[in-house]
């Protein structure tokens, strides 16, 4: 069947000004221009004028626009009515309300008393009524061979957890008693991807949600109401009853039709066809985006806001990517759609760009104070108009059978009611049986995976887990290679030509003496170099090591000798301004590393004073144990630094409070070393071997819409350096996916970044010669296309489907514009005019001075942090060119270098490759930088 595409139907609904806004005298900035079908946002003051970049108004055309006076009636009739009817033909459909907080999404979807005091029926109750009208009509026709079954389920996506709204009872008590993490394990639902019966597509499916079977509209309406009462709501400055979760109410329609193809013949057989149609109607009320500064969210609400904004940002990116893809389709280009960036986008995968008929209702506020959000909503809605879905009916299990009617016919020669009823029932039983079997199979698999996950989590707490995991990984890989069954062809691993020739030519599988295709290979010359690097490192270790029995201490010594540490652990440093020439930044970092770190000293003092207080009770021990488990990796790095800062403490017995944590840590480090080698100093700690864990984590997306790049995908385990820097109790980003991603990267035979970096550290080679395109700078000069082409996306939904961990930190990159001419500085120009000078900008072009660049970059950094803070982003990440970072530090910007193997991909072919080759990665807490800049540089927001 030819696949027909249909655009997403987008409409805009503006609510009236609410009493608060009227009381505060807000002006309206939204109007409708009927002749051009545009929703127009108008600049009502200087601020909005600025946001429109000098234009007085901006118009967005939409087929359907609903002003404050409109009710849901017209939206329903125009857009939703036809959708509900399509569901009975087997099409999936979605109605999705989107917009900032307080803009009227819940009002549109659920109804209630409006600002004008009138009670309005929302879209969902209307859908329920309409749907059962159709069911009744079908039933009224009394076609015997037809059966309809309606079920529904209600979910909410709250703080990235999927929950069943129909079984909330007792959730609060359980959370307060056992903590959310425990409750999540029992109440959280799984999102997985399954193959559809028809079309062979992979669609998202929520496993474990309670499906309520309903037989009439009242029953369904009651179910909906009960579920929505359970939804997480809260009060903010912008909405008294703000939804803090995305709600998805799904109605499943299952229709079975038995058609009699041939009536009973002389052989007493009839030929019948039984067809099943099933469709899903999703009614989605998203939580609204909010600027936390305005909503006043703190604590729990702040966390909620961060999650809401994160999901919506991902949704925006999906919309932009799909719209771009639709535009590019004329050139038959297929782009990457970042569905997997959030649970919300995964859930809506089928509704946006899938096979659903979709209506997007963009809700906006008319108030001038909401100008920016309104403009943003309209911008995305406008892009969404371009998205094309491919609706296909879900008709499956159409069976034609010869049947011997066992019951006498009502009319001579024809199949009677009772026979058809019997056939239907029989078919229904068969279907139930089939579904039951499928459910059981799935449940069994889920149980198996849950057991596996639990066992793995237990195992991960055991000392030496990392080591075991690495060994196991290599063992599996060795078997896989030997059998010649590599599931991933090398060509798929790195999909970009720029990255060819990655690494130094010798890959770690040379240890296995095998290539990825399973054939035996001679070792390359690089292996000798490795050997020498190894012995050199061991020599250094031997000369610096003072306490042979302590793994963590040896590790500490090593960490001081090498910039690159093992197991993804790395340290960070607060940088201080340094006077002197603008040397290569990379070269400058070693002396600083040796100099120790204030924050570590502080930490040590804190723990010491704790110990001095004699606070060594059970509670503390438990807490220390917990802390040691959760931050063990970070502590290793930290411990290493501490030891360097206070070497005289080594001889002293460690305070009791520290012992617990250190024992854990130490245990882990030692256990990672093969037992046979434990007492041999030279072999006890093999830096290279321990570093052989795959750990390059780089998957970045460029938001082509803006000038900022969004750098994502951080895992708990492998970015512990970053995680360790977060304030206590910050939810840790975690993603099982990363482990998988790493494994994939491992399969690239030429990639051996860690080893190469070791060689650079041991001065066997220079960075430029050795690393080639593996190291570089993302931000300072990125060209959007170039980076887009470097996207790694190795995730296979099939293999990842049960790994449902999605929390991530968002890291933002910063671009410094490199224009040759500087725009006139207003203040300077004004001063000069006042002083009677000619306008210096008039005829000649003023080049940028380095101070200009610095000011500009700091301004940008400030703007970035403000934006990030408003969006609930906690930490930032950038790779500025070396000199610039130095200057930032001089200007008091608090940055910390990440000394891990986190390296970015920058193609050697890039014209400025050499210039940026020594760039380093810096990390910062957004609020610190913003506050610092505000304070020191007197920047007025
Ligand atoms: N079109 C409208 N006409 C009349 N009143 C409206 C309209 N839209 C919204 N309202 C009222 O505005 C208030 C906020 O609306 P609502 O709660 O639906 O916003 P929301 O977008 O769902 O917000 P959040 O994202 O915070 O949940 C409610 O009191 C609602 O009744």
Automatic annotation (TrEMBL):
Keywords: ATP-binding, Coiled coil, Cytoplasm, Microtubule, Motor protein, Nucleotide-binding
Domain of life: Eukaryota
Main location (coarse class): cytoplasm
InterPro entries: Kinesin-like_fam, Kinesin_motor_CS, Kinesin_motor_dom, Kinesin_motor_dom_sf, P-loop_NTPase
Cytoplasm is among the record's keywords: yes
Span of domain Kinesin motor: 7-387
Localisation per UniProt entry: Cytoplasm
Binding, ATP: 99-106
Bias type Acidic residues, positions: 653-667
Protein name as annotated: Kinesin-like protein
Organism of this sequence: Dunaliella salina
